[in-house]
């Protein structure tokens, strides 16, 4: 079974993202910045008083996948993330129901080396699948 983890929001600058999210969400804590050279992102997690986790994501490097969002000037509210103990089975399941992978699984520093993969759903939004208990 998959469990909700976070809402991913792309921002051109993490400090700007922190200031903006604090305007509408009752943020009680921010993580330290995580730089993931492999994926090409800078990340800060924000936690609100209701227990919702937000992932603020900005570009790191010239090949960052975040840059495409900025060039289209849309999709800043980018993805909803779920964790799973059955990572490989869930990938097969999501492919079988018609979701399109947006790349191969990659190890993510934000999750201590656990694998992540992104899928475009038939509803037009992106799901991030995060592997649990694998490093």
Describe it for me?
This protein is α+β, with helices and mostly antiparallel strands. Helices cover 21% and strands 41% of the residues. It contains three helices and ten strands; from the N terminus they run βαββββαβαββββ. The protein has helices at residues 14-24, 66-72, 87-96, and strands at 3-10, 27-30, 34-36, 41-48, 53-59, 77-84, 100-101, 106-108, 114-120, 126-131. Strands 1, 2, 3, 4, 5, 6, 7, 8, 9 and 10 form a ten-stranded mixed beta sheet that branches. The chain is globular and about 40 Å long. The mean pLDDT is 92.
- Tell me the overall shape: globular
Q: How does the major sheet shape up?
A: 10 strands, mixed
Into which percentage range does the β-strand content fall? 35-45%
List the total number of helices: 3
Along the chain, the helix and strand elements come as EHEEEEHEHEEEE
End-to-end Cα distance, whole Å, is 19 Å
Give the averaged pLDDT, no decimals: 92
